[in-house]
Task: structure prediction
Amino acid sequence: MVRNIFSKTAGAALACAASIGLVAGCSTDGDAVKSDAGSAASTTTQSDADPAKVRALVLTPKDFPAGYVAQEIPLSQMDDTLDKLRAATKGATFTPASCGDVNAIPDIDFGKIGLAVATKGMTASLTEMVTVGGTTVSNYRKQVTGECSSMTMTMEMEGQKVTSRVKQNVLDTPKVDADDSIVVEAVTTTKVGGQTVETRTLTGAAEVDGYLVNVTATNMVPSGDPDRAGFEALFTKAVAKVVDQA
Result:
């Protein structure tokens, strides 16, 4: 049981760190939290995008695929999650070393995030975020196809050495009416003691008139595949709503 917790925490931390340019906070339960934070060199073009509208631009519970149940996540819980992620990665060693610098966890104002989360029993989750700012899809594409497309994080948790490796691959993107878009599959393998756990996630990002739309599908069963059909349906709907209502 303890090793399962180690594996889950470390794997989620590395999967989150690997895409930190788009997703500046991930929970140790594997769910992603979209950030509007970003460096001055990597922020999206603001145009007329209004941060006050992001919550109204996310999908409603009825828009999620059949079988998914919407979840309410208090802002205090998201703040606590980010603190846990920082603690988990403090002192971690990254290979390549430069990926550790790229993936520093910034402060996040969760009040400026449009967020919708739904789960399918204990097996799968779908998360949508809409923000203004963050990295561009172009910069994210460079990251996931560059030297950080395959990276390893080694750390200690309660005296145990934990090693996680993530590999990221760009997949075909569903047809969406966006300024730019990308879909990335991340496969994270975590080893602690004699146990190895593999998790897979799908992340889609799209820029629409200064807004950044992010959809993530996670299979919460080790070695299982994410809900590709549910992910593509939600990603398409998410982008279409921002296009129609932004």
